[in-house]
Write a structure and sequence with these properties.
Length: 299
C-alpha cells in the first residue's frame, strides 16, 4: 500500500508557485492577491481560511481576510462582493461556505464575477468546466486530480465511484473524471443516499472518491483488493484527549481499508492540503489572466 501524501504533494506545488510568483515580482508584474470573506466563527471555516491566508504568504502572494459576525446582513456581503469584483488589486476571492441560514448562498455565489471566482463555484465556471472549456475548476476536485496525476495513477478506462453528490466536490468530480482528458476518461458512477446496492457498486471500483461527510462510511468489505481510495471527509468529532478538543475523521475507515488497497489518502494530510494548493493555482491563473486582459506584458 502506498500512502498518498497530500501534504508533501501540496508542498511541491507551493514550491513551484513560489518560483513563478518570484518571477512575476522580478518583472514588476502585479502580484497575485487573494481575498477571503469569512462569516461567523465556525471552527472548520476559521481553520481553513487561516490556512489559505498563511499559504498565500508562503508562496509570496498577497492576501486580505475580511471577517463578519454571523449576524451580518446579506446586503453587506453583496456590497463587499461588488467592491471586490471592481478592485483591480484583487486577483480573485472566495466566500467561505457554509454561510448562516439567513444568507442565500446561491445569491452570494452568483454575485461573484466569474473571472475572480477562484473557488470555481459560479455557474458560469461550473458550466464551462462541464463543457471542457477554460474555467476555474473548484479546488477540491482539482486537487484530487492533481494527486492522482502526481502519483501516476491512471484514470483512463478505470471504474471510478464517487460517493456523494455535493456541488463542491462530488458533482464536479464525477464530471472531471469522465471528461475526455488525460486525467479523465474514466467510467464514473456517482452514488448517494438514495443509491441501491451502494456497497456492491463500490466493491467493483478501481478508484473510490469518498465525499459523503459521514465518518468511516467506507469499510474494508466495500473495497476491492488493490483499489485506489481518496478520502475527502473532514468531520470533527469531540475528543478531549486532543489539544484542539476534536479529532478529524475521514469518510474512510483507514485502519481496515488501508490493508486492502494499492493507494490511499489519509485524513488529515491527504486532500485537505491539496485544496489549498489548488486555490493558490487558481489565484495565480486569475492574476495572469487579468493582466493579459489589461495587456501587461509577460516577459
Ligand atoms: N467550504 C468547504 N470547502 C470550501 C471551499 O473549497 N471553498 C469555500 N469557499 N468554502 C468551502
Amino acid at each position: 500500500m502506498t500512502l498518498i501524501d497530500g501534504k508533501q504533494t501540496a508542498k511541491e506545488i507551493k514550491e513551484e508557485l513560489k518560483v513563478k510568483v518570484a518571477k512575476l515580482k522580478a518583472q514588476d508584474h502585479p502580484v497575485p492577491h487573494l481575498a477571503a470573506i469569512l462569516v461567523g466563527n465556525d471552527g472548520g471555516s476559521v481553520t481553513y481560511v487561516n490556512a489559505k491566508v498563511k499559504a498565500c504568504a508562503y508562496v509570496g502572494m498577497e492576501s486580505t481576510l475580511i471577517t463578519y459576525d454571523d449576524q451580518v446582513m446579506e446586503k453587506t456581503l453583496l456590497d463587499k462582493i461588488e467592491e471586490l469584483n471592481n478592485d483591480d488589486n484583487i486577483s480573485g476571492f472566495i466566500v467561505q461556505l457554509p454561510l448562516p441560514k439567513h444568507i442565500d448562498e446561491r445569491k452570494i455565489t452568483l454575485a461573484i464575477s466569474p473571472s475572480k471566482d477562484v473557488d470555481g463555484f459560479h455557474p458560469e465556471n461550473v458550466g464551462r468546466m462541464s463543457l471542457g472549456l477554460p474555467a476555474f475548476v473548484s479546488a477540491t476536485p482539482n486537487g484530487i486530480l492533481e494527486l492522482l496525476k502526481r502519483h501516476e495513477i491512471p484514470t483512463e478506462g478505470k471504474d471510478c465511484v464517487v460517493i456523494g453528490r455535493s456541488s463542491i466536490v462530488g458533482t464536479p468530480m464525477s464530471i472531471l473524471l469522465s471528461r475526455n482528458t488525460p486525467t479523465g476518461n474514466a467510467t464514473v458512477t456517482l452514488v448517494h443516499s438514495r443509491t441501491k446496492k451502494l456497497e456492491e457498486i463500490c466493491k467493483r471500483a478501481d478508484i473510490i472518491i469518498a465525499a459523503i461527510g459521514k465518518p468511516h462510511f467506507v469499510k474494508a468489505e466495500m473495497v476491492k483488493e488493490g483499489a485506489v481510495v481518496i478520502d475527502v471527509g473532514t468531520t470533527r468529532v469531540e475528543d478531549n484527549t486532543k489539544k484542539s478538543g476534536f479529532k478529524l475523521y475521514g469518510d474512510v475507515d483507514f485502519e481496515t481499508v488501508s490493508k486492502k488497497v494499492s493507494f490511499i489518502s489519509p485524513v488529515p494530510g491527504g486532500v485537505g492540503p491539496m485544496t489549498i494548493a489548488s486555490l493558490l493555482l487558481n489565484t495565480y491563473k486569475a492574476c495572469v489572466q487579468s493582466s493579459d486582459k489589461l495587456s501587461i506584458p509577460q516577459k
